[in-house]
Amino acid sequence: MPSLNCPSLAHACHALLRQLGVPETEHQEFDGTPVHTPIDGTVIGHVRPLSVGQIPVLIERAHDASLQWRDVPAPQRGELIRLFGQELRAHKEALASLVTLETGKILAEGQGEVQEMIDICDFAVGLSRQLHGLTIASERPGHRMMETWHPLGIVGVITAFNFPVAVWSWNAALALVAGNAVIWKPSEKTPLTALATQALFERALEHFAKAPPYLNQLALGDHRVGAALADSHKIALVSATGSTRMGRDIGPRVAQRFGRVLLELGGNNAVIVTPSADLDLALRAIVFAAVGTAGQRCTTTRRLIVHDSIQDRLLPRLQAAYGKLRIGNPLEPQTLVGPLIDKAGFDAFQASLVQARDQGGRLLGGTRINIPQAPGGYYVHPAIAHMHAQTDIVRQETFGPLLYVLTYHDLDEAIALQNDVPQGLSSAIFTTDMREAERFLSSSGSDCGIANVNIGTSGAEIGGAFGGEKETGGGRESGSDAWKAYMRRATNTINYSHELPLAQGIRFEI
User: Fold this and answer.
1) Which end of the chain, N or C, is surrounded by fewer C-beta atoms within 10 Å?
2) pLDDT digits (tens), the chain, 510 positions
3) What is the CB neighbour count within 10 angstroms for residue 254?
4) Which residues are tagged catalytic?
């Protein structure tokens, strides 16, 4: 594997792209947009983004593909996803390394992201034989009522830099087995992993004769490309992952044309630690959830709410664990925390530190680490801010490794603190008290879409529906019945009698 001492991370990137089947013309467009690696800030490729004027061509191609794809039986559509899963298994290490190069997340997390793609493919293959509706009792004799599900048409997928391929797969695997065509706009910061994923998908298509061309298309570009997808009446569903600010733009644009929107936006996730908690378990979970991906997950733990009777037992251990974190080149196996994505991410992190201090916080960490081999990388010491109250900055999402610490005295207070933020994605409680756990999971407990007991806020499995409430957007992706978002429902009633009784007993005689 290349390291910071490698002559060129660009050479390593190009080798991985060749291995993954991406033509050089797609990532060495030297008059195109440069792609930087967060590892040292150097350019590792160039891509040519689409203009807004090219988007209608993609949409027309996707429309034609969707008309053919919807007539392919769902279990056969699942076969395509099975073949794609095989490609991912065969190229897991290469794609994971590319994820690390382009995002800066450590190798283990890059591998975990590709494993998520494999897992959702397995889920979708099984789902392709379970796209079932209901048989519903009719009040009229000689009638049968049922529910059927049909493809929407085109699904637009907009993804963020922090999970550049897994989130696309959550959407695309389900959308494709549901009979839709997909147009994917990846983050401008991570186009190379998108090109590689598209190449692997097209390799799977080569072994599946029933699939039409242009079934999944890439739309590289900036926010104007995303806006064009949101504004198109031919795109039935736009699934967008990103900031709350982005959601405030995309959501109304799609709603204005009565389209469907699936939003996965910001998180401000809290962990409550009670007096009965297993502190060894809690400590490991908190550290990973707070500093994993350099704090750049939507499910990152951003608030730690500790009972006042145990703060002196937990917080010194937490600070000691932070002091042992191995921060540096994410390509080296021993590294636990890589860089922030870029200067903008670093500046936002620093601005939050200043506000936390100004609002009474006592800070540990947060300084930039200068790595001579990577002068263009933004490496930081993860920060802990001891706060006297849940101030304005605590109620905002900081997309970096900044953990706010608050204390509480009774569980009602802790739950109120947790819920008193605009976001509602993930939450967790550490307790061995059954009553506390059940209260936390009840309707008067956590108001988040994800509520965990004795595990952290990050690391969701694909079997459960993923998403959150309030400013997180209300969308659900991945497992459970999230597939229903990618299909339209029809209620059907069949009269197999010789009579025509009306519902509700209405009589209308001619």
Assistant:
1) C
2) 455 455 689 999 999 999 999 999 888 877 789 999 999 999 999 999 999 999 999 999 999 999 999 999 999 999 999 999 999 999 999 999 999 999 999 999 999 999 999 999 999 999 999 999 999 999 999 999 999 999 999 999 999 999 999 999 999 999 999 999 999 999 999 999 999 999 999 999 999 988 999 999 999 999 999 999 999 999 999 999 999 999 999 999 999 999 999 999 999 999 999 999 999 999 999 999 999 999 999 999 999 999 999 999 999 999 999 999 999 999 999 999 999 999 999 999 999 999 999 999 999 999 999 999 899 999 999 999 999 999 999 999 999 999 999 999 999 999 999 999 999 999 999 999 999 999 999 999 999 999 999 999 998 899 999 999 999 999 999 999 999 999 999 999 999 999 999 999 999 988
3) 23
4) 264, 298
Measuring CA to CA, which residue among 379, 417, 420, 422 is closest to residue 401? 379
What is the token pair recorded at 432? 């061995």
d(Cα 54, Cα 58) in Å, to the nearest integer? 7
- The token duo for 261 is 């929107």
Is the overall model pTM greater than 0.90, yes or no?
yes
